[in-house]
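Thought: the user wants the 3D structure for the chain below. I'll pass the sequence to the structure tool as-is, report back what it returns, then summarize two notable features.
Action: structure_tool
Action Input:
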Amino acid sequence: MNLLDTIPPASFEDALVPYDAYGWRVLISGLRHAQGQFEKACFGRTRCLSESLPHFERRCCLSHCEGTMELYKSLVLPQGPRGSFPVILAHCVYSHVLWRNYEAQQVKDSDASSTTQVSPFYSLVTAYFCYGYGGGTVRDWVMAQPPTAFTNPDVLVGWVWGYLAVYFCPNDALYEMCRAGAKFNPGKAFFMGMDAIDSAGGVCASCEKATKLFPDNPNAPFIAGMLISLGGSLFRYLEQKSRGKNPQTEWAKPTSVFKRGLFYTVLYLVLRRVKGDPSQARLTLVTLHLVRVMLQNAVGLEIFPFLV
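Observation:
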């Protein structure tokens, strides 16, 4: 008989709650040490305890994996229209980082005739449309819907907190950790990963929104997916024009953003048809994009070379 099977299920689950992946390993290490001391005292007559520990370890590991998967699903498949605030906040932080990268590049490439001094308020507002929620804003305008900033109060809260974190963090630590050219590190991986969840999830949500609003038009989901992918490039074009430059639109010579938006929109619609479940299609696409981003930045591996 396995000794740990005699523990009531409720108390067993309660015992697992306080322990994370590190915590339960410490617990098991302690139990194994106690097992060794007990075996020495009882001359090895503890076969049932020896058999119970691997079983206990498996149950701990399975419980932890299930909890991690549920957490991941809660980020990718948020319940309700407001989405997951941790994803929103991390996306806002990384959007401000991208804007600062862009500003730094503009200063580097600028000359006396094109340099434009910008105020902090300009950065706060313009970054929202160029790198934060420009795509969703254009999508909603085209579909005659109120933009996300009006329908989801978490967006404005996350945007302001993200701005404060990126611009006023002591020693500029947050930006230095995540900026372009910084060495890949756990902090950068976290914000890039959460931004990847938001980016790919936005394409899926746009397709579903168009399906709900225009059920008789099979082309509406594709149009909505492309709008959220390319909307930000429209604001980036206008921003560069305001600096006295003469840029091309990003769809005039398709960039990686355009190619990715097209590919992900088509792929999501295919997955949705094959799987028959929007949630499973979204989970698949977001996971694929997340893996792509991590491999691309961690080891320089591009799993979709045609998107570069």
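Final Answer: Structure generated. The first helix runs from residue 9 to 16. The chain has two domains: 3-73, 84-307.
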